[in-house]
């Protein structure tokens, strides 16, 4: 990627972080008090996400590797692009509007624009699909471990139907590709429809090739396909350890099953408000509803949401910082290979 484009992504992220810090709905005294209360659990949570991002990177790595030669693209480089990509997604309204273009542009010099685009689209589909599988798992876990009232039965049923419907939609996307379908949707959006139509006409063959690469993984490389999906699902389950660690600051009377349910329903609420940077409000509301639904003190949800936000902010800063690390060396390596 050209340095000027990388700088645009970087400065956008920096400005977004500054705005979010200045608009945080908590005093610095309360923030410091809660950080002190978290103690050594906060560093444990930060280290945990080092491994979670490694699992995310593994999923994306096997997708890219299945498409052909890596041309010097190492796991370490992809880890860097993964962390930076998620950092940009966290600070971008509507989500997936900053990190995905960044990843495509970073991968293009190694594997070409079509393969880079197809791998990023496919990874995003894997990432989203793992959420649906995780939420379905949470519904089943709730039914097994908790008494189901009429109200909760209706809620669980709605969640289950929604997740199954979306999973079916993604299965169709895996079989036939998503690039052309996304362009078709964009061609009906006011203000951008003409540009999308022009782009689609100009790059029709490239879009079809991208879709063929997406569907190829599902049709002919099923072990890679399910391996990548399992990695993403595993990352969701490992993320529940964060909730368990945070709540252990307040009480030892919390099970890993509770942590799964809290994480599942808080992320569901947050993703329903995908248009907010860092899903502000949705995550906090989701934590509050989740702990209340499990008959736990509301303060647990507030504390968990706050520590999670701090962890996200730290990893956002890390992701933005490493965008500028090692780029000259990458350029030199590609020139030697060329």
Overview of the structural elements:
With 338 residues, this protein is mostly helical. It has one domain (3-337). Helices cover 80% and strands 0% of the residues. It has helices spanning 3-22, 28-38, 41-65, 75-90, 99-111, 113-145, 150-176, 179-186, 193-202, 204-220, 222-247, 256-272, 282-293, 298-321, 327-337. Helix 1 (3-22) packs antiparallel against helix 14, helix 3 (41-65) packs across helix 4 and helix 7 (150-176) packs across helix 10. The radius of gyration is 21 Å and the shape is globular. Residues 275-279 have low confidence and may be disordered.
Q: Nutshell version of this structure?
A:
The chain is an all-alpha fold and 338 residues long.
Secondary structure elements and pairings:
Layout: H1 3-22, H2 28-38, H3 41-65, H4 75-90, H5 99-111, H6 113-145, H7 150-176, H8 179-186, H9 193-202, H10 204-220, H11 222-247, H12 256-272, H13 282-293, H14 298-321, H15 327-337
Helix pairs in contact: 1-14, 3-4, 3-6, 3-11, 3-14, 4-5, 4-14, 5-6, 6-7, 6-10, 6-11, 6-12, 7-10, 8-9, 11-12, 11-14, 12-13, 13-14
Task: List the keywords.
mainly alpha; 0% strand; 80% helix; globular; 338 residues
Task: Give helix and strand order, one letter per element, not per position.
Answer: HHHHHHHHHHHHHHH
- What is the residue-averaged pLDDT? 79
> Which structural category do the helix and sheet elements fall into?
mainly alpha
Relative helix content: over 70%
Largest sheet properties: none
How many helices does DSSP assign? 15
Cα(first) to Cα(last) distance is 16 Å
DSSP, total strands: 0
Q: Regions with pLDDT < 50 over 5+ consecutive residues?
A: 275-279
Count of distinct structural domains: 1
What is the alpha-carbon Rg in Å? Answer: 21 Å
Shape: globular
Strand content: under 5%
């Amino acid at each position: 990627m050209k340095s000027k484009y990388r700088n645009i992504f970087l400065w956008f992220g920096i400005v977004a972080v500054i705005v979010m810090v200045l608009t945080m709905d908590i005093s610095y005294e309360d923030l410091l008090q809660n950080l002190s209360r978290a103690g050594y659990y906060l560093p444990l949570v930060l280290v945990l996400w080092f491994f979670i991002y490694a699992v995310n990177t593994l999923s994306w790595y096997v997708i890219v590797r299945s498409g052909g030669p890596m041309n010097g693209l190492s796991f370490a480089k992809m880890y860097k692009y993964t962390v930076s990509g998620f950092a940009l997604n966290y600070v971008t309204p509507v989500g997936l509007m900053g990190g995905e273009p960044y990843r495509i542009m970073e991968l293009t010099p190694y594997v070409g624009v079509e393969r880079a685009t197809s791998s990023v689209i496919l990874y995003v589909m894997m990432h989203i699909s793992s959420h649906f599988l995780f939420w379905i798992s949470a519904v089943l876990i709730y039914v097994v471990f908790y008494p189901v009232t009429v109200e909760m039965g209706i809620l669980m049923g709605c969640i289950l139907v929604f997740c199954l419907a979306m999973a079916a939609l993604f299965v169709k996307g895996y079989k036939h590709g998503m690039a052309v379908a996304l362009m078709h949707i964009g061609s009906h959006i006011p203000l951008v429809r003409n540009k999308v139509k022009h782009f689609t006409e100009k790059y029709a063959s490239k879009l079809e090739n991208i879709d063929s690469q997406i569907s190829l993984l599902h049709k002919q490389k099923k072990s890679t396909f399910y391996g990548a999906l399992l990695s993403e699902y595993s990352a969701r389950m490992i993320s529940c350890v964060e909730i368990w660690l945070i709540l252990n600051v307040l009480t030892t009377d919390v099970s890993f099953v509770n942590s799964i349910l809290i994480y599942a329903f808080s992320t569901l609420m947050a993703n329903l408000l995908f248009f907010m940077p860092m899903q502000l409000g949705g995550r906090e509301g989701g934590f509050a509803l989740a702990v209340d639904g499990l008959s736990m003190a509301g303060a647990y949800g507030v504390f968990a949401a706050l520590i999670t936000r701090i962890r996200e902010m730290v990893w956002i800063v890390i992701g933005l910082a490493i965008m500028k690390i090692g780029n000259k060396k990458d350029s030199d390596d590609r020139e030697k290979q060329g």
